[in-house]
Write a structure and sequence with these properties.
By secondary structure, this protein is mainly α. The chain is built from six helices and three strands; from the N terminus they run βββαααααα.
Length: 152
């Protein structure tokens, strides 16, 4: 469902995914970055729907697992299917760079955070959750291999 001016841009709910209407109003002149972001967002939300029962955190402290897994899968799906004519590996390299850069900052927060009050969860949807978490999942999958990971 498309929602005008939906603040979150996209959100998965059981049986219903909401998207900001501007995401779907593209044309051939839109830049490739916007198109990739749109494809990635659609896939990210669908991954939440398909794998939600397998990769769902027990509590908000493990938000990184849910979000970074969905982000890893959009990259993998775009890379494997080549549904758009781009080199998705460039985005892989940018994500690795961003994750390493984040991890070198002073006072960096861990991906697992102690969240005691549910109202604070909106503050934790950040690059640590998405980029650093994605990098951890990516390293794990590269270590054990796609075949073993996707058998689980």
């Amino acid at each position: 469902m498309f929602v005008p001016d939906f603040e979150s841009m996209a959100m998965e709910n059981p049986g219903l995914i909401l998207y900001n209407d501007k995401m779907m109003l593209q044309n051939d002149e839109d830049d490739m970055k916007w198109k990739i972001w749109t494809y990635a967002t659609i896939i990210h939300e669908l991954v939440h729907m398909w794998f939600g029962n397998y990769v769902t955190m027990k509590w908000w402290s493990d938000l990184w697992l849910n979000e970074s897994f969905a982000d890893y899968m959009w990259y993998k799906i775009l890379y494997d299917t080549r549904i758009i004519d781009i080199d998705v590996f460039i985005y892989y390299e940018m994500r690795v760079f961003k994750a390493k850069h984040i991890d070198q900052q002073k006072n960096i927060l861990p991906v697992i955070r102690d969240i005691n009050i549910i109202w604070y969860t909106n503050y934790f949807f950040d690059n640590i959750v998405y980029s650093k978490g994605w990098y951890i999942i990516n390293q794990f999958i590269r270590y054990i291999g796609d075949d073993i990971f996707f058998e689980m």
